[in-house]
Amino acid sequence: MKYECIITAFVAGFIFPFLIELLWHEMVRLWGPMGGWIGAGFIVGTVWIVNHGLNLIPQMGPWVDMTWGLCAGLFTASIVRGGKFKKALPHLVGGILGGIVAGYILSLFV
User: What is the DSSP letter of 57?
Assistant: First the structure.
């Protein structure tokens, strides 16, 4: 794999959890539950288009869902900010299982 592909994949994987952490809670705080739905459409949709539509994530090997990148990014952010590993473990497992389920469902249609 070329270094350019590694760098773009890393940056593309960073964008998703960064925007979720930066914007999602603020949208929910301002607009309530509707803010969560708007965040889902705006943040997730925009990042999907940037990553896959602009091909920032090169699809050279096995298919990986964006959920795993989000899970790893948010888990890492919570640990870096002083969170406890044991307390964050259920979220890590949930993210991994969510990535597996999403990947399986999408594999039925792709």
Answer: S
**Tokens of residue 22, six digits:** 């930066």
Phi-psi region of 26 (alpha: psi -120 to 50; beta: other; left: phi over 0): alpha
The CB-side HSE value for 92 (13 A sphere, CA atoms) comes to 14
Measured CA to CA, the distance from residue 43 to residue 45 in angstroms comes to 6
CA contacts within 13 A on the Cβ side of 83: 16
Using the predicted structure, report yes or no on whether residue 62 has a pLDDT greater than 60.
no
| pLDDT tens-digit readout, 63-85 | 566 777 788 888 888 888 887 88
Least confident stretch, 49-63, 64-78, 93-107: 49-63
